[in-house]
Amino acid sequence: MPNNESTGSSNDLSGKIALVTGGSRGIGKAIALELGKRGATIAINYLKNHKAAQATVDELEAANISATRIKAHVGDEIAVESLVEKIDERFGHLDILVNNAASGVMRPAAELSAKHWDWTLDINARGPWLLAKAAARLMPEGSRIINLSSPGSTRVLPAYFAVGVSKAAIEAVTRYLAVELGPKGIAVNTVSAGFVMTAAIDAFPDELRVKDIASRPTPAGRVIFPEDVAKVVAMMCGTDAEMIRGQVIMVDGGETLRHE
């Protein structure tokens, strides 16, 4: 039977512990800020850029958000276990896992090596699976796992082969985990972001005109901002999204409806 008893705002994440991978820049940073503004304590994971990670922590703390940073390569199984152990040691549990960290080699399939494939799939698909598996041990009932994807999971984009395949994989991982972790009270979903003007856009070859697409108004009348994606991720972490499981929520302002 539905529980109609009011327990406060569904947007209130006070007391929640959230881990955001790739949380020092771009969409990940926006997600960390949004979850923090709603009351969550934030742990941002990063790999290389200590300066950017610390700057994000400083920004969060300046906004009265409790935050910390933890370095780890999410494509490495040992590093993932160490990351989750550090979360356990510092907080004792984890309520929200946002698998935002992503990488990849932007080349056509014929120009990729097995090494390129392994690097891309390890970070973008294998890592989120390993993190979800390990983090679930710390997650109480009502917890959330949100994976980040892109429209390249279903649409063929030039030079996007390995990344697109990895995004299709993470969407499949989401569906399987949603069923497997459902009995534990853990909801698993994907938020797919359209072309958002962040530093990640620079990875696309200029001839693909991705910057032009990202900077033009969507059918919604404007471009997509990282905060647009962050708000949907935060919404999916609230109680109103309890019955959404294993789904891909598109945040693109209607851009993928266009044929050009």
Write structural notes for this entry.
The chain is of the alpha/beta class and 260 residues long. It has a single domain, classed as Rossmann fold. 38% of the residues lie in helices and 14% in strands. Strands 3-2-1-4-5-6-7 form a seven-stranded parallel β-sheet, with helices on both faces. Helix 1 packs across helix 7, helix 3 packs parallel to helix 4 and helix 4 runs parallel beside helix 5. The longest helix is centred in the middle third of the chain and has 22 residues. It starts with 16 loop residues before the first strand and ends in a 9-residue tail after the last strand.
Poorly predicted ranges: 1-7
Strand order of the largest sheet: 3-2-1-4-5-6-7
Provide the residue-averaged pLDDT: 91
The global form is: globular
- Beta-strand percentage? 5-15%
The CATH C-level class name: Alpha Beta
Order of helices and strands: EHEHEHEHEHEHHE
What's the domain count?
Answer: 1
- Give the proportion of residues in helices: 25-40%
Question: Total helix count?
Answer: 7
CATH-derived architecture: 3-Layer(aba) Sandwich
- The N- to C-terminal Cα distance equals 47 Å
Major sheet description: 7 strands, parallel
Assigned CATH superfamily: NAD(P)-binding Rossmann-like Domain
CATH topology: Rossmann fold
State Rg: 18 Å
Strand tally: 7
